[in-house]
Amino acid sequence: MVINGNWNGWLVTVSVKPNCLTVSIEAHGDTQVYSYDYAGRLWTALVDRLSYRRGLDGKMVAKWQAEGGERQRRWLLPEEARQVEEQARQRMRDLYLAIQSQSARLDVQLPDLGVLGFERLIAFDTQASQADIARYFQVYKPVGILPPDQYFAVVLQATEGCSFNTCTFCDFYRDRPFRIKTPDEFRTHAQAVRQFLGDGLSLRRTIFLGDANALTVPMSRLLPLIEVVHDSYDVESLGGIYAFLDGFSAQKKSHADYRLLAQRGLKRVYIGMESGNEALLKFLKKPGKPVDAIEAVKAIKDGGVAVGVIILLGAGGQAYIKAHVKDTIQALNAMRLELDDLIYFSELFVSNDMPYLQDAYQAQLQPLSPEERIAQGDEIEAGLKFSPKGGTPHISRYDIREFVY
Fold first, then answer.
1. Domain tally, the chain
2. Model's pTM, two decimal places?
3. Rounded distance, CA 102 to CA 76, Å?
4. Which residue segment(s) compose the domain that 20 sits in?
5. Last residue of a domain, which of 87, 106, 132?
6. Which of 21, 166, 180, 269 could anchor a disulfide with 285, C-beta 3.0 to 4.6 Å?
7. Domain ends where: 132, 153, 176?
8. Spatial CB neighbours of 58, under 8 Å, sequence gap ≥ 6
9. Are 350 and 169 in contact (CB under 8 A)?
């Protein structure tokens, strides 16, 4: 339901959706937009041409475009994030009071869900926000990364850590060993997540089974965990189950296993192949070979489950640039990807504490420039061929520096 109005000469639009409350205020050519879940959490805002995104852990990233059109971002300090959140809350409180006093005039009366949304977000003050963040860390281990189409998932950590944790370009799980939760432990976690999300569950679109490589769990132990998900959530109404799996472990499950998992709600498996070049994978200390990922994709798709394949742009620098493109094209074409599948291009961004940086230094690798990384993705995409019958998968890029859960 979209409601238009006027407040102090400003144009106001209140969008009351089943999953969130969004308010837009336009004055003198400037537009401010605030969106909240029905637990009262701010999750996005647009203020002074800065776009903010708040995670469930309270972290907030600001994004904007520079004069030349280049995309910029900065993670806010905790106090800065609290200020943005509180200023937004006060603005919404003032608007709601004006609506109640009729000094702000709406063309349609605010429905009960809209009233609930305003009252919840107004009650979500700094103290409530800090308490909510504390509850998040009681429920979750840090959520390292998700595919972009899963940023609004309900993340359920059936496992913790990564099953191999050797990739030099990844530091998401260095702080914890891989382990599989028992069904009872996972049930407690799944229910705690549901309680934590509260009415904010309406904003969540899918269920993501974490952490890294959750589907490497043997079927005899995985199926009871899947049952816990069904006992705790309406899987179908939430859009099904999604998960990561490395290509090396993936081949250990048959197409019959995936067909059974599809019957239990599994919709898509994401494989970080990174490259189709075997030598580059070895340099990255990524277990397995490209052929493992190819065979895994075939088994997954034969089981009726879609795939998402992630390619790392810039990996190996100038030394691997040609082989990375050539062999990745060959590997992706061998997978016979279709309309329901995804291909993600993710640029390599290296921090000082990553083992990749030391390995690249010792190998005297020359890194690719941002423009060269983009060109590498364009070249790979240009070489891909898909069946007219199966259709073309969705191909896009994502920046891990902007990940917020």
1. 2
2. 0.92
3. 36
4. 2-132
5. 132
6. 166
7. 132
8. 78, 81, 129, 130, 132, 133, 136
9. yes
